[in-house]
Amino acid sequence: MILIDGREIGFTKFPNGETKVIEDTIIGYVAIPQNVHFKYEGDESLIRLMLVKRYLDSLGYPSPVLTIYYMPYSRMDRSENESAFTLKYVADFINSLNFKKIVVIEPHSDVTCAVLNNAKPRYLSLELLNNVQVLMGFDSARDFLFFPDAGAQKRYHSVKGYKQLVGYKNRDFTTGMIKSLDVVGDLTSLTVGSKALIVDDLSSYGTTFITAGEKLRELGFKEIYLFVPHAEDSIFKPHPVTGKILPEHMDKIFTTDSILSTSAIDNWGNAKYKGKVTVFKLKDFII
To answer: Which stretch of DSSP H or E encloses residue 263?
Structure first.
């Protein structure tokens, strides 16, 4: 999905699969474009972004600001043992489009904004945290924030005034599965009714969060909630190894539509797991 100043741009395809921009969704509706919002929905989205930007250039418009809902290939943010530095390659492509500046919603690591030109992060989770707490009935005197690893704790280091716990994972690197998880922090104020809010940036099948939730319940937490701004459609599917489905292990999940497809939200979030998943729409929070 690509929006220009809040209006969605349309596309069609030729029989051979080539993408065509529906020019009428731009001409006549765009005065001087200020903001382009980009939601990655597969590699074709990158081609669409290029076509739209080049078309705006051809019309003589000044370069707008690009807001990226989720930066694609964020998890491949380094090159180890001659692996492909895919994030850098995709960033080079976006840089070539010469946007005025770039805003990245909840980047997975500092590398993302480092490889993009004139880019800055926007941590929407910090802005939405209060909304989440109201919806789950979070009591800062009784309840805890839980960061599933040191990376998440570092990412949200500016969050202050809460009881905080951190997880340390023991992972089997041959299978990728988590063998155990230790919880570090002061649990002396844990009470019978304490709730835990797990906070991180990204979820696929949610194995880490399921493991964390099981461990937190063992420690005595009554209710387990998850707030993860970026969630893939796979959060509603059984893990290919464990068979576990994330919403079945959380009292409630809070996320955004930065990655989630409309079909996943409608067919799963509003049906099988109705009431267990709250999806904040980014267009309601980002101008």
So the answer is: helix 262-264
Under CATH, what is the fold of the domain 2-122? Rossmann fold (3.40.50)
Residues in the chain: 287
pTM over 0.85: yes
pLDDT in tens, 76-94: 877 776 788 999 999 999 9
Structure tokens at 249: 């292990």
Q: In which order are the strands placed within the sheet that holds 252-256?
A: 178-184, 163-171, 144-147, 195-199, 223-227, 252-256, 277-280
| Rounded Cα distance, 65 and 43, in Å | 21
pLDDT at residue number 241: 86
Measured CA to CA, the distance from residue 281 to residue 30 in angstroms comes to 23
Interatomic CA distance for residues 200 and 256, integer angstroms? 13
Q: Does the fold of domain 124-284 match that of domain 2-122?
A: yes
Amino acid type, 65: V
Quote the CA–CA distance of 172 and 193 in Å, as a whole number: 34
CATH architecture of 124-284: 3-Layer(aba) Sandwich (3.40)
101, 166 in Cβ contact below 8 A?
Answer: no
Burial string for 48-83 (b: 16+ CB within 10 Å, else e) reads bbebbbeebeeeebeebebbbbbbbbbebbeeeeee
> What are the extents of the domains in the chain?
2-122, 124-284
Q: In what order do the strands lie in the sheet with 119-122?
A: 7-8, 2-4, 35-38, 65-68, 101-105, 119-122
Q: Are 11 and 19 in contact (CB under 8 A)?
A: yes
Q: Is 38 exposed, middle or buried (0-12, 13-18, 19+ CB in 10 A)?
A: buried
